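Structure tokens please, single chain.
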Amino acid sequence: MTVSDTDRMHAQLSRLEDMFPGYLTEIVEGSMMLSPVRPFHGQTVLGVWTSLEEQLAPDWALVSDVAFPFDDANEFCPDLAAIPVEAEAENHSAYPADLIGFVAEVVSPESIRRDYEIKPRRYASQGISHYVILDPLKGHAVTMWNPGPDGYQGRDTLPYGPDLTLDTPLGKLTIATGRLPVDPKARATR
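Here you go.
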């Protein structure tokens, strides 16, 4: 039995997570990335998780920061992803990317390029119907839909405040953006 490059990289990620608590690790374009997790990041994930969990059909479950290998060069750990409840019940640290029905990322200063440029291409190429970027640095949400091989064909940017409602294959999902944290420095520049 041979060990694939992806398996070797995933094993390395697991070791890095143990060595650097408080950091999110991912493989992006063949490079291992360490990003510190900040309070606004966690507050955003928790707020959106709580809201979405109540709205999901019983056959879907939310996961956070588990690995989804896309190819040998990309293994993402989405901030929030909806996968079938049967898969979630297996309690793995990694799942096939084709299980994702909905995905959301929370922007941090270190993840801007990954969240806005790299991940939309990969998520769209996998056919994930909706990708939401929640950006506490700018105080807005970006929704992307209509996936294709070159990325998402639809995109809206909405300031935090009003509820964000998405009509997804998982059903209608609403995110209350008015209570999401916004970096105080972002408020001054909005």
